[in-house]
Each structure stands twice: as structure tokens, then as C-alpha cells.
Amino acid sequence: MVTLAFPDPKNLPLARRIGYAMHVNRFKLLRTTLVALAAFGLAKPSSTSAADKPNILIILVDDLGYGDLSCYGAKDLKSPNIDALMADGMRFDSFYANCPVCSPTRAALLSGTYPDLVGVPGVIRTHPENNWGWLSQKATLLPRTLKGAGYHTSIIGKWHLGLEEPNTPNGRGFDHFKGFLCDMIDDYYKHRRHGINYFRENRKEIDPPGHATDLFSEWAIDTLNDRKGKEAPFFMYLAYNAPHTPIQPPQDWLEKVKARQPGISDKRARLVALIEHMDHGIGRVIDALKKNGQYKNTLTIFSSDNGGQVSVAGTNGNHRGGKQDMYEGGLKVPTCAVWPGKIKAGTRSNLVGITMDLYPTACAAAGAKVPDHVRGKSLLPTMLGQAQKLDRDLVFVRREGGLRYNGQDYHAFRRGDWKLVHNHPFEPYQLYDLKTDPLEQNDLAKSNRKKFTELAAALRLHTQRAGRVPWQKP
């Protein structure tokens, strides 16, 4: 190493002393710049570089009950692939859907906030007289936020947040869409709703043959294969419509269940077969991730949009109620997060999470800025094994029509272990202490008026805030 020595400036004439000072300053600036450049070149890639960003895969299934996986206690059902996913990461035992029906929960996932605050208090449907939502243009959806962080974004499967522009997947930030726009399909093979074909590849109408579950699994695998080797990380939202009605499993899957489970009812056998068929498809998607070398650097999150439908033999563990109910059976859903090397395998959490938390969680993993309208909380600290406490209220709202509901809302509100339940627009509010009464059997609305009034007042404030948000097409 060469050391540069400079004369003592006190021994130089004034003119040379000034020139000398300027020379030394230039040298110091050059040395500082070279050191900084060298450090930059030797440093590890920054946390915002594409190489450091994980892929993000969110798998949302439709109407899967808390008790309808073998890892959640089902005795007549085998779900080896979802079970393996649960075992490979962190399982959440107290995770809520934002609503006991489809559209609002999907709006919460993609907006990161309460669905009635973005114009989706109920189910979006084909016919205007039975439509209860219009997704606000003011909300920046998750795909657009992740696109800003360098991600390729795709949705495969069920959209259910709008049937026309601007509220289509491509119109709201997805680079690639292959699936259907509407609330459900009347036949898993014919793919129509009210006689209308809502299946699209981006903005082009398509009419593919095959069972919808198989199609979505295949299309997801095709998209993963297409992203293999690409520099940009990907965000894929894989939204199965199974096991939503109609309960229509492939015949060979139904026969397999009936042969394995003597005495099982036909209704239950059909649902079990539909879930097992979906589990098989999810296993194929995860296998593709692994074969492509993508799995290790992918944050995979699995959840359901609401509880299981009891009328078609869905089960929700020991919880009261099911789909459409504000009781725990309608809201608590099986959920897990997997990120090999980051999230410890075989772990479980009782932290109370909710669907809208997945937006800021994905942003935290991706190094993306969370928009101001997001009210969910990142669960990434918990996933990474760090202590986390979420001291917050949770609000659940659904608006619905028909003779049973007549365009009215019904609600639930949770603060700590206390839960206010309004399970039908024309029924009284109920109050439960989930700590001592997790099955919601002992209504304390009359005996604990102080707590009842406290929660009812907090719910009223949310209702007033949401009342300012339009929910019909302008």
C-alpha cells in the first residue's frame, strides 16, 4: 500500500498554501468517493433488488369449512397436499375471513381494508336488482402495489369483483388473468352463469373444456412455468371456486370416496370428493413450484373466503354456524403461510388474523409501500417467529337482498375476547365472551349491558364511516 505524504502547509508561501489546500480537498473528496463506490460494489444486493424479493402465491379456496381438512380434524376426508403445506410452515388457528360470503372477503384481500369501505358490503352479481357492491376506484389493489415494486401479477380462477370495465382483473392491476368474472358457475364442466359465459383470458372470452378445478390448476402451472427463469418476481392469486356449489366432483373421485368410506351419505361424499379433487390440484401446483426451483423463494399463503356451507354437508369444526353466519363457523377459516428457510416448519399461531391482513403482509415481504387506505396489519413478524401483539377491533358486515334480508345489513364486532353478533337483520344483537364461551352458547347481551353498549357504539361509528362509500355502479 502506498502512503501519500504531504508537506506541512505552514512552511509554504501564501499562494502555494492556498493551492495546496485546494489540492488536498480534491484528493479527500476523490478518496471518499472511491471508498463509497468500492463499498457499494462489494456490498450484498439491497433488500429491494429483484433477487431478494420473494415470489408471492396466495391460494384462496371457496367455502372451505374450518373442519373440512384432515389436518383440522376431518375423519372422513383426506387432504394430504394441503396438510403438507400446513406442516411446511405456520398454521393459523384463529384466522378470520372478512365476511361470511364471497365478494366482500375478496375485496378485503385485494384492497387491504374492510370491504364496505371500498364499496363491497355484499355479493356482486349479474342482475342489478340483486347486486350489492361496486369496487371503489379509489382503492389501490394489491396487484397494482406489487407491480410498482417490480412484480409480475396474475390471477387464476375466480374474480367476483366486477363483470365489466373498469372493475376487471386487467383493469385493476393484474398483468395476466385466466378464469371467470362472476360469482359462481352453474356447472363445473359447462362454465356458465345464468346462461352467460364469463370465462376470460385477459379480456378475451374463452370456452375451454374440462372441470373448472382441473383448468385452474393447469393454468396456474402454465403461468408458473412461464415465470421460470424470469428476473422479476411474481405475485399469483390462485382463486379456486371449489368447494362452492354446485357440489360436482368428477365421478371417479366420488366413487373413490364412497368405496373408502362405507356408510357415508351421498351429500357428504360429494363434498368430500370435491375437496379431495381440489387438494390434488393444489398439490400439482406446489409440485410445479418445486420442479421450477421457485418454491424456496416463494411466500405461499393458503386460506378460504368464508366458512363451510352446512346445507351441503360442510363442517366447521366445533364452531357454531357456517357460511352466511356471523357466528364463528361462518368466519373462522383454515389458514397457513409457508416460506422455506424463513417461516419455521411445523409452527402454529393463535394470533387473531383476518383476510385484509394479507395485503400488508405481502407488501412487507416484497418491500412495497403500503397505501394509506389499508387497515390490515402485516402478520410477517409472527410468521418469522417474532413477538407480535395486535390490539384492535374487528368488524364484519354483510348486506344482502331477497325476502330473507330485504337489502339490510347484519354484523359482528370483536374486541379482545368479546364478540357482538347480529346474525340476521331482523334479530336482536347478541354478546359472547369467546374466552369462556367459544361455541357462542351463552348470550350476555342482557346481563352485561355495559360491554354490550361499548361494542355497539364502536360498531355504529364504523357503520357511519362506511355509509359515506358508494356501493352501486355510478
Write structural notes for this entry:
This protein has helices at 14-42, 80-87, 102-111, 142-148, 212-227, 251-260, 266-291, 328-331, 358-366, 380-383, 402-405, 449-466, and strands at residues 55-61, 90-92, 95-96, 152-158, 176-180, 199-201, 204-205, 234-239, 298-304, 335-338, 347-349, 353-354, 393-400, 408-415, 418-422, 430-433. The protein is of the alpha/beta class and 474 residues long. The chain is globular, with a radius of gyration of 27 Å. It contains 12 helices and 16 strands.
User: What is the CATH C level class of the largest domain, in words?
Assistant: Alpha Beta
Largest sheet: 10 strands, mixed
Total of helices: 12
CATH architecture of the largest domain: 3-Layer(aba) Sandwich
Residue ranges: pLDDT <50 for 5 or more in a row?
1-7, 20-48
Number of self-contained structural domains: 3
CATH superfamily of the largest domain: Alkaline Phosphatase, subunit A
* Shape call: globular
The total strand number stands at 16
